[in-house]
Design goal:
single chain; about 290 residues; alpha/beta; Rossmann fold; 6-stranded mixed β-sheet; 4-stranded antiparallel β-sheet
Length: about 290
Protein backbone atom coordinates (compact mmCIF):
# COMPACT_ATOMS: atom_id res chain seq x y z
CA UNK A 1 0.00 0.00 0.00
CA UNK A 2 1.32 3.45 -0.85
CA UNK A 3 2.44 5.63 2.01
CA UNK A 4 -0.38 7.71 3.42
CA UNK A 5 0.36 11.22 4.61
CA UNK A 6 -1.99 13.62 6.40
CA UNK A 7 -3.64 16.14 4.11
CA UNK A 8 -2.73 19.73 5.04
CA UNK A 9 -5.37 22.43 5.05
CA UNK A 10 -4.67 25.31 2.76
CA UNK A 11 -4.97 28.99 3.48
CA UNK A 12 -4.08 28.80 7.18
CA UNK A 13 -2.07 31.65 8.65
CA UNK A 14 -0.39 31.75 12.02
CA UNK A 15 0.99 34.97 13.42
CA UNK A 16 2.41 34.03 16.80
CA UNK A 17 4.78 31.07 17.35
CA UNK A 18 3.85 29.06 20.41
CA UNK A 19 6.62 27.44 22.44
CA UNK A 20 5.50 25.10 25.25
CA UNK A 21 7.71 24.77 28.29
CA UNK A 22 10.46 22.19 27.85
CA UNK A 23 9.50 21.58 24.22
CA UNK A 24 11.93 19.13 22.66
CA UNK A 25 14.20 20.62 19.99
CA UNK A 26 14.01 19.42 16.41
CA UNK A 27 16.27 16.39 16.00
CA UNK A 28 17.16 13.78 13.44
CA UNK A 29 14.10 11.86 14.59
CA UNK A 30 11.98 14.44 12.75
CA UNK A 31 13.37 13.14 9.45
CA UNK A 32 11.06 11.07 7.21
CA UNK A 33 10.87 7.39 8.14
CA UNK A 34 8.90 4.27 7.27
CA UNK A 35 5.21 4.11 8.12
CA UNK A 36 4.26 1.21 10.39
CA UNK A 37 0.54 1.62 11.17
CA UNK A 38 -1.54 3.60 8.69
CA UNK A 39 -5.13 4.81 8.94
CA UNK A 40 -6.63 5.85 5.60
CA UNK A 41 -9.98 7.70 5.47
CA UNK A 42 -11.17 6.19 8.76
CA UNK A 43 -14.67 7.01 10.02
CA UNK A 44 -16.07 5.67 13.28
CA UNK A 45 -19.54 5.77 14.78
CA UNK A 46 -21.21 5.00 18.09
CA UNK A 47 -24.69 4.28 16.79
CA UNK A 48 -25.67 7.53 15.03
CA UNK A 49 -22.84 9.55 16.59
CA UNK A 50 -20.08 10.22 14.06
CA UNK A 51 -17.04 10.27 16.38
CA UNK A 52 -14.15 10.08 13.88
CA UNK A 53 -14.48 11.76 10.50
CA UNK A 54 -12.37 10.78 7.50
CA UNK A 55 -9.04 10.65 9.38
CA UNK A 56 -5.84 9.76 7.54
CA UNK A 57 -2.59 9.51 9.49
CA UNK A 58 0.40 7.26 10.01
CA UNK A 59 2.35 6.06 13.02
CA UNK A 60 5.98 5.88 11.96
CA UNK A 61 8.50 3.17 12.67
CA UNK A 62 10.42 3.71 15.93
CA UNK A 63 8.73 7.03 16.60
CA UNK A 64 6.32 8.30 19.25
CA UNK A 65 3.23 9.99 17.81
CA UNK A 66 1.07 12.04 20.18
CA UNK A 67 -2.60 12.80 19.49
CA UNK A 68 -3.93 15.90 21.24
CA UNK A 69 -7.23 17.77 21.28
CA UNK A 70 -10.11 18.72 23.60
CA UNK A 71 -12.29 16.16 25.34
CA UNK A 72 -14.73 14.42 23.03
CA UNK A 73 -12.80 15.17 19.84
CA UNK A 74 -12.36 11.50 18.89
CA UNK A 75 -8.77 10.89 20.03
CA UNK A 76 -9.42 7.76 22.07
CA UNK A 77 -11.94 6.43 19.57
CA UNK A 78 -9.36 6.74 16.79
CA UNK A 79 -6.81 4.90 18.90
CA UNK A 80 -9.28 2.08 19.55
CA UNK A 81 -9.98 1.82 15.82
CA UNK A 82 -6.30 1.11 15.19
CA UNK A 83 -6.35 -2.21 17.05
CA UNK A 84 -10.00 -3.19 16.57
CA UNK A 85 -11.10 -2.36 20.10
CA UNK A 86 -13.78 0.02 18.82
CA UNK A 87 -15.84 -2.81 17.37
CA UNK A 88 -16.23 -4.38 20.83
CA UNK A 89 -18.71 -1.61 21.74
CA UNK A 90 -22.33 -2.50 20.86
CA UNK A 91 -23.56 -0.40 17.95
CA UNK A 92 -20.07 0.81 17.03
CA UNK A 93 -18.73 0.57 13.49
CA UNK A 94 -15.69 1.60 11.47
CA UNK A 95 -15.13 2.32 7.79
CA UNK A 96 -11.94 3.10 5.92
CA UNK A 97 -8.65 1.22 5.92
CA UNK A 98 -6.09 0.48 8.63
CA UNK A 99 -2.90 -1.36 7.68
CA UNK A 100 -0.04 -2.73 9.76
CA UNK A 101 3.14 -3.10 7.72
CA UNK A 102 0.92 -3.05 4.64
CA UNK A 103 -1.45 -5.76 5.87
CA UNK A 104 -5.12 -4.83 6.40
CA UNK A 105 -6.10 -4.82 10.07
CA UNK A 106 -9.79 -5.19 9.10
CA UNK A 107 -9.17 -7.73 6.34
CA UNK A 108 -11.30 -10.90 6.10
CA UNK A 109 -8.36 -13.03 7.25
CA UNK A 110 -7.33 -10.71 10.12
CA UNK A 111 -8.18 -12.07 13.56
CA UNK A 112 -9.00 -9.29 16.06
CA UNK A 113 -7.11 -11.16 18.78
CA UNK A 114 -4.02 -11.46 16.57
CA UNK A 115 -4.27 -7.79 15.63
CA UNK A 116 -4.35 -6.83 19.31
CA UNK A 117 -1.32 -9.01 19.98
CA UNK A 118 0.69 -7.01 17.43
CA UNK A 119 -0.95 -3.67 18.28
CA UNK A 120 -1.04 -3.56 22.07
CA UNK A 121 -3.05 -1.02 24.04
CA UNK A 122 -2.88 0.45 27.54
CA UNK A 123 -5.82 2.40 28.91
CA UNK A 124 -6.25 5.54 31.00
CA UNK A 125 -6.76 3.73 34.30
CA UNK A 126 -4.58 0.79 35.33
CA UNK A 127 -6.40 -2.49 34.68
CA UNK A 128 -4.48 -5.30 36.41
CA UNK A 129 -6.39 -8.56 36.74
CA UNK A 130 -7.25 -8.60 40.45
CA UNK A 131 -7.31 -12.37 40.84
CA UNK A 132 -3.88 -12.85 39.26
CA UNK A 133 -0.38 -12.47 40.61
CA UNK A 134 2.06 -9.92 39.24
CA UNK A 135 3.74 -12.63 37.17
CA UNK A 136 0.49 -14.03 35.81
CA UNK A 137 -0.74 -10.55 34.92
CA UNK A 138 2.27 -10.01 32.68
CA UNK A 139 1.96 -13.48 31.15
CA UNK A 140 -1.80 -13.21 30.55
CA UNK A 141 -1.46 -12.03 26.96
CA UNK A 142 0.50 -15.13 26.01
CA UNK A 143 -2.61 -17.29 26.43
CA UNK A 144 -3.67 -16.26 22.93
CA UNK A 145 -0.86 -18.40 21.54
CA UNK A 146 -2.69 -21.58 22.51
CA UNK A 147 -0.57 -24.64 21.80
CA UNK A 148 2.28 -22.36 20.78
CA UNK A 149 2.36 -20.82 24.23
CA UNK A 150 5.94 -20.86 25.60
CA UNK A 151 7.01 -23.22 28.37
CA UNK A 152 6.92 -22.06 31.97
CA UNK A 153 10.64 -21.32 31.99
CA UNK A 154 10.40 -19.43 28.70
CA UNK A 155 7.38 -17.55 30.04
CA UNK A 156 9.38 -16.56 33.13
CA UNK A 157 12.05 -15.11 30.84
CA UNK A 158 9.44 -13.20 28.84
CA UNK A 159 7.89 -11.86 32.06
CA UNK A 160 11.25 -10.69 33.35
CA UNK A 161 12.13 -9.05 30.04
CA UNK A 162 8.76 -7.26 29.87
CA UNK A 163 9.05 -6.02 33.47
CA UNK A 164 12.58 -4.79 32.82
CA UNK A 165 11.45 -2.94 29.72
CA UNK A 166 8.63 -1.41 31.75
CA UNK A 167 11.17 -0.28 34.39
CA UNK A 168 9.37 -2.34 37.03
CA UNK A 169 11.52 -5.44 37.52
CA UNK A 170 13.66 -4.13 40.37
CA UNK A 171 10.55 -3.08 42.29
CA UNK A 172 8.65 -6.40 42.02
CA UNK A 173 11.19 -9.17 41.37
CA UNK A 174 10.93 -10.47 44.94
CA UNK A 175 7.12 -10.59 45.01
CA UNK A 176 6.05 -11.88 41.61
CA UNK A 177 3.61 -14.26 43.27
CA UNK A 178 1.74 -11.51 45.11
CA UNK A 179 -1.49 -9.92 43.94
CA UNK A 180 -1.10 -7.16 41.39
CA UNK A 181 -3.63 -4.97 43.21
CA UNK A 182 -1.10 -4.54 46.04
CA UNK A 183 0.99 -2.34 43.74
CA UNK A 184 0.72 1.45 43.70
CA UNK A 185 -1.20 3.16 40.91
CA UNK A 186 1.96 4.03 39.02
CA UNK A 187 3.30 0.51 39.39
CA UNK A 188 -0.01 -0.94 38.22
CA UNK A 189 0.13 1.18 35.08
CA UNK A 190 3.67 0.05 34.32
CA UNK A 191 2.51 -3.51 34.97
CA UNK A 192 -0.18 -3.03 32.32
CA UNK A 193 2.49 -1.73 29.95
CA UNK A 194 4.62 -4.80 30.75
CA UNK A 195 1.60 -7.02 30.02
CA UNK A 196 1.27 -5.38 26.61
CA UNK A 197 5.01 -5.69 25.96
CA UNK A 198 5.04 -9.41 26.80
CA UNK A 199 3.39 -10.25 23.46
CA UNK A 200 6.18 -8.30 21.74
CA UNK A 201 3.90 -6.00 19.73
CA UNK A 202 4.96 -4.00 16.72
CA UNK A 203 2.94 -1.02 17.98
CA UNK A 204 1.98 0.14 21.49
CA UNK A 205 -1.03 2.43 21.87
CA UNK A 206 -1.40 4.43 25.10
CA UNK A 207 -4.69 6.15 25.92
CA UNK A 208 -3.89 8.92 28.43
CA UNK A 209 -1.68 6.53 30.42
CA UNK A 210 -0.75 9.06 33.12
CA UNK A 211 -4.14 10.75 33.62
CA UNK A 212 -4.68 9.10 37.02
CA UNK A 213 -1.06 9.11 38.21
CA UNK A 214 0.92 11.37 40.54
CA UNK A 215 3.81 13.48 39.13
CA UNK A 216 6.54 11.01 40.12
CA UNK A 217 4.74 8.08 38.49
CA UNK A 218 3.95 10.23 35.46
CA UNK A 219 7.64 10.98 35.01
CA UNK A 220 8.53 7.28 35.10
CA UNK A 221 5.90 6.43 32.49
CA UNK A 222 7.03 9.31 30.26
CA UNK A 223 10.64 8.15 30.48
CA UNK A 224 9.51 4.65 29.57
CA UNK A 225 7.52 5.89 26.57
CA UNK A 226 10.48 7.90 25.34
CA UNK A 227 12.77 4.85 25.59
CA UNK A 228 10.35 2.40 23.94
CA UNK A 229 10.77 4.09 20.56
CA UNK A 230 14.07 2.22 20.15
CA UNK A 231 12.22 -1.09 19.83
CA UNK A 232 8.70 -0.27 18.60
CA UNK A 233 6.24 2.26 17.29
CA UNK A 234 4.23 4.18 19.91
CA UNK A 235 1.01 6.18 19.69
CA UNK A 236 -0.13 8.16 22.74
CA UNK A 237 -3.32 10.11 23.35
CA UNK A 238 -2.83 12.89 25.89
CA UNK A 239 -4.62 16.00 27.14
CA UNK A 240 -1.29 17.28 28.44
CA UNK A 241 0.43 19.32 25.74
CA UNK A 242 3.60 19.53 27.82
CA UNK A 243 3.66 15.74 27.88
CA UNK A 244 3.26 15.59 24.12
CA UNK A 245 6.15 18.03 23.77
CA UNK A 246 8.34 15.95 26.08
CA UNK A 247 7.81 12.45 24.72
CA UNK A 248 6.73 12.59 21.08
CA UNK A 249 8.41 12.97 17.71
CA UNK A 250 5.21 13.89 15.87
CA UNK A 251 1.93 15.36 17.09
CA UNK A 252 -1.54 15.23 15.57
CA UNK A 253 -4.26 17.71 16.58
CA UNK A 254 -7.89 16.59 16.40
CA UNK A 255 -11.04 18.67 16.74
CA UNK A 256 -14.68 17.52 16.53
CA UNK A 257 -13.67 14.17 15.07
CA UNK A 258 -11.43 15.61 12.36
CA UNK A 259 -7.66 15.58 12.02
CA UNK A 260 -6.79 19.28 11.74
CA UNK A 261 -3.05 18.90 11.23
CA UNK A 262 -0.09 16.68 11.95
CA UNK A 263 3.57 17.66 12.05
CA UNK A 264 6.86 17.11 13.85
CA UNK A 265 6.14 18.01 17.47
CA UNK A 266 8.43 21.01 17.64
CA UNK A 267 6.96 22.37 14.40
CA UNK A 268 3.35 21.94 15.48
CA UNK A 269 3.92 23.74 18.79
CA UNK A 270 6.02 26.58 17.38
CA UNK A 271 4.59 27.15 13.90
CA UNK A 272 1.20 25.45 13.45
CA UNK A 273 -0.34 25.80 10.00
CA UNK A 274 -3.97 26.00 11.08
CA UNK A 275 -5.33 28.83 13.28
CA UNK A 276 -7.47 26.30 15.16
CA UNK A 277 -4.32 24.50 16.26
CA UNK A 278 -2.83 27.79 17.41
CA UNK A 279 -5.99 28.62 19.34
CA UNK A 280 -5.93 25.26 21.11
CA UNK A 281 -2.27 25.21 22.09
CA UNK A 282 -2.46 28.80 23.38
CA UNK A 283 -5.40 27.88 25.60
CA UNK A 284 -8.11 29.87 23.86
CA UNK A 285 -10.37 26.81 23.98
CA UNK A 286 -10.26 23.20 25.17
Amino acid sequence: MAAILPIPRSGATVRTPIVPQRARPTTASDAPTAHCLVADSVDAWFGDVHAVKNVTLSLDEHRVTAIIGPSGCGKSTLLRCLNRMHETVPGARVTGTVTLDGHPVYGPDASPATVRRHVGMVFQRPTPFPTMSIRDNVAAGLAILGRSKPSRSATDEIVEDALRRAALWDEVKDRLGQSAVALSGGQQQRLCIARALATRPRVLLLDEPTASLDPASTQKVEELVYELRSSMTVGIVTHNMQQAARVSDRTAFMLQGELIEMAPTNTLFTAPRDPRTEAYITGRFG
